[in-house]
Design brief:
The protein is globular, with a radius of gyration of 17 Å. Helix content is 41%, strand content 9%. With 257 residues, it is of the alpha/beta class. The structure holds zinc ion.
Length: 257
């Protein structure tokens, strides 16, 4: 795929409580992702090629301390936060403050009725935590590029996009929010209306980050979603400089690589 450095995102602890669907959503939404220690060890064994994040189930009483422990050990991001909590819950806000203290971004998975609920209120967090760098991704994040996205139950909308959706406005109005292109939702946001996508990449060229969110064992072709996303970014970027920012420069700056 041409990727030279990868940031691994661990899951939180395996616990049974409402925020993890009573255990069904352990391993990041049931994706069997492993925890902090595993990514720390993998990164140590492949130094230079892999960095890692720190994570914990948002509303565990020890979440802040667990994440802080791994930030002190060298984690470069908090996340991804993929737990059933309100995006402005007191426990979430503790982690937003922690991200500012350690000058690392915090990555939120927005999915209607599933994770980081209350996306329409998220602007309050962007305003309340100006020193925190947020990164948004997933279905509800990407569905809301369209100002005519009304039915939030539709997680993978198709067809033409009218600028001015919540996500478009958050990126325009607040300097402390970035967008991560990963997964089918990110890829579909680009391909569903390519004319719109060209303008979106142009408008937010300093705030978009490439992410894969697939195993990428194939590394190319239709079996590899991450490779398709790279191809879409290359095809839809209006200039080499925009392409380079999204695939490299923005992350280099944000993570001080
Ligand atoms: Zn996610």
């Amino acid at each position: 795929m041409g990727v030279t450095q990868t940031i691994l995102l661990p899951s939180g602890s395996e616990v049974s409580r409402a925020s993890t669907g009573f255990g069904r959503m352990n391993g990041l939404g049931g994706a069997r992702v492993s925890g902090n220690e595993s990514v720390k060890q993998f990164a140590a064994a492949h130094s230079g090629e892999y960095l890692y994040g720190a994570n914990e189930v948002t509303d565990l009483p020890e979440a802040r301390a667990t994440i802080e422990k791994y930030l002190k050990l060298g984690a470069v991001i908090i996340g991804e936060q993929k737990f059933k909590v309100e995006c402005d819950s007191p426990e979430s806000q503790l982690l937003y403050a922690l991200a500012a203290d350690y000058q690392v971004p915090i990555l939120l998975h927005f999915q209607h009725e599933a994770y980081n609920l209350g996306f329409d209120r998220f602007h309050k967090m962007l305003a309340k935590f100006p020193k925190t760098t947020f990164i948004g991704h997933a279905q509800t994040w990407w569905a809301n590029i369209d100002r005519h996205h009304v039915d939030q139950k539709v997680l993978y909308p198709t067809g033409s996009v009218t600028p001015g959706g919540l996500t478009d406005r958050y990126l325009s109005d607040y300097p402390n929010i970035f967008a991560d292109m990963s997964a089918g939702s990110g890829l579909q946001a680009l391909t569903r209306d390519e004319d719109h996508a060209r303008g979106f990449l142009e408008r937010h060229q300093d705030r978009i980050l490439y992410g894969s969110d697939c195993a990428d064992a194939a590394g190319r072709g239709n079996a590899c979603q991450g490779a398709q996303t790279i191809a879409a970014i290359r095809r839809l970027s209006g200039s080499k400089s925009i392409e380079r920012k999204i695939l490299h420069d923005n992350s280099k700056k944000l993570f001080r690589l």
